[in-house]
Amino acid sequence: MYSLQFTAESSSDGMLERDFTVGDIPGVLWSPDSPAAGRAPLVLMAHGGGNHKKHPAMSGRARLLVTGCGFHVAVVDAPGHGDRPRTAHDEAEIAELFRARAAGEPEGPIVVRYNDHLANLAVPEYRATLDALQGLPAIGTDGPVGFWGINMGTAVGVPFVATEPRITAAVFGQHWPDVLAEKAKQITIPIEFDLQWDDEHISREEGLALFDAFASKEKSLHVNSGKHKELPRFEADSAARFFARHLGRATITTA
Amino acid sequence: MYSLQFTAESSSDGMLERDFTVGDIPGVLWSPDSPAAGRAPLVLMAHGGGNHKKHPAMSGRARLLVTGCGFHVAVVDAPGHGDRPRTAHDEAEIAELFRARAAGEPEGPIVVRYNDHLANLAVPEYRATLDALQGLPAIGTDGPVGFWGINMGTAVGVPFVATEPRITAAVFGQHWPDVLAEKAKQITIPIEFDLQWDDEHISREEGLALFDAFASKEKSLHVNSGKHKELPRFEADSAARFFARHLGRATITTA
User: Fold this and answer.
1) What ipTM goes with this model?
2) Which fold has domain A4-247?
3) How many CB pairs under 8 A join A and B?
4) Chain B residues with CB within 8 Å of chain A CB
5) What's the topology of domain B4-85+117-247?
6) Do B222 and A221 touch (CB under 8 A)?
7) For residue range B26-52, what is the model confidence (pLDDT) as tens digits?
8) What is the per-residue pLDDT across A70-118, written as a single tens digit (0 to 9) for each?
9) Contacts of residue A216 in chain B, CB cutoff 8 Å?
10) Which DSSP string corresponds to A22-82?
């Protein structure tokens, strides 16, 4: 088991941000900036393709959970993303994606294949990161843990959650069923799932098929009009409320 | 134009409840119990089949909007429901529904036909009620107006909203597309739409077809696992937040 090393620390508006490494995996842990906070639930997040652990979508969601719910939130860079080196395979797949995009060909087959490759690497990394985070006194091994990942975060999260009993609630969305549906059938925890009704990459049938595959007794699907990148901001608020319901704690105030 | 007559008044926990009539239509208006409240947005609601204006689902939703958002909320009894007389036609349709249910036959064709009949009567009643409510100084003619009706409330609400430009945001759900889809195509305001993934009466295809029919640029679908009557309570919270976003005003606190 790798231990967690903090490498930088800053704080703003009630949120403590600490960079860390677990082995050679770089991550960030956001926490309530209050010495009396005590133990609190943890939400692991996974970023989208081409992004990184501190993308504004990540820090924005973290703020909802940290200042709205009093939770800890952690994200690590996916292989080939953020502060991590790209392999020749990464470069080739990214080039192929850009080529397909420029040629107006479907991106789905390339994204599905490349994200599956990355997920195979990332799942054990997420497990090691969770092990290390649970070694921190403010998190511990007995508290509830959530997972939140959309797009590539779902490609990583579905196989991770399918084999990780410590995760008790998850938010997924916006991915294809090809590789993931079989793994989703092993997931029984409460989930919230986002899809875009006018997604130019993922058809309605594909999106609904992945939602349908989850074996969870309690599952919610949120569909919004709009294209792939137009997921409304209020779905982040909804996800934060979902975690507040399922991980305990928290009063959220929404303007 | 009928004027609005208040016939009873009570108050509890910050919510004023006033029974009223508009012509021979009995209704209830819930409002913030604060003399300094001033003008506030109005949400018209429509109750489900077999229920009435003060069913706990109605008063519970009203409380979210009145005490959470500072809005006015009004419901009237549908024809043949609540304090209103049943006609021979009502009795025959209800008997036919109970017969089909006991025989294990599909309820959909009877509900669709009977709700369409009731909606034809109820739409002008809702229009007259809105006219009368807007005559009250605390509501007025220039404020935003929402509509919230699930089940039979959607059968009434879709034709009402399709022809009523004063409604600026609406929550619908859980009905068949047969009669309503054509009318939904005329609706362009923001909507939130609920359906149950394991509804024993309305198939997924039927539910999705009605959602798809709305011409609204901004529309959200909330699907939850569970049967027809298992719509989760948190969807009422979500609907209240939807109205808070679209009708202005309001801070909602969710535990």
Assistant:
1) 0.89
2) Rossmann fold (3.40.50)
3) 65
4) 197, 208, 211-212, 216-225, 232, 234, 237-238, 241, 244-245, 251-255
5) Rossmann fold (3.40.50)
6) yes
7) 999 999 998 665 789 999 999 999 999
8) 999 999 999 999 999 999 999 999 999 999 999 999 999 999 999 999 9
9) 225
10) ETTEEEEEEEES-TT--S--EEEEEPPTT--TT-HHHHHHHHHHHHHH--EEEEEPPTTST
